[in-house]
Amino acid sequence: MFNEQVKVILYADDVKKASAFWQSLGFIELSFEELDGSQVAEVAMSETSTTHLVIYDRAFIQKNDDEATEPSPALIFGSDDMISLYKKLQTVGVQLGDLTQIGEEYIFNFVDTDGNYFVVSGN
């Protein structure tokens, strides 16, 4: 049976830089390893989070399995305080889309250091 643990693979040109990006958004780095000449980092929103992002070196993966790195994942993060989160991401210099209200929810997107887009929705 499946459990509640979900790990999402992200590919980055610079694993350390990508991990630092997510940490600047408030994520924590759970692990950073050197594996077979490549780097792998795992980050999460907290130590008890059931969703983790596992960041692999894009060049290493393409060299070993050129079909594995595409397409990029489409992730939607949730937030209970969209305005504060949006302001925090502005403060740390993250490239952001417009904060838009749709019905009772807000939504915006942001871009990581490798040009991947992510969405946040909530109140």
From TrEMBL:
Family matches, as InterPro entries: Glyas_Bleomycin-R_OHBP_Dase (IPR029068), Glyas_Fos-R_dOase_dom (IPR004360), VOC_core (IPR037523)
UniProt cross-references to PROSITE patterns, sorted A to Z: VOC
SUPFAM superfamilies: Glyoxalase/Bleomycin resistance protein/Dihydroxybiphenyl dioxygenase
Top-level taxon: Bacteria
Pfam families in the cross-refs: Glyoxalase (PF00903)
Domain VOC: 1-123
PANTHER family: GLYOXALASE/BLEOMYCIN RESISTANCE PROTEIN/DIOXYGENASE (PTHR36437), GLYOXALASE_BLEOMYCIN RESISTANCE PROTEIN_DIOXYGENASE (PTHR36437:SF2)
Protein name per its UniProtKB record: VOC family protein
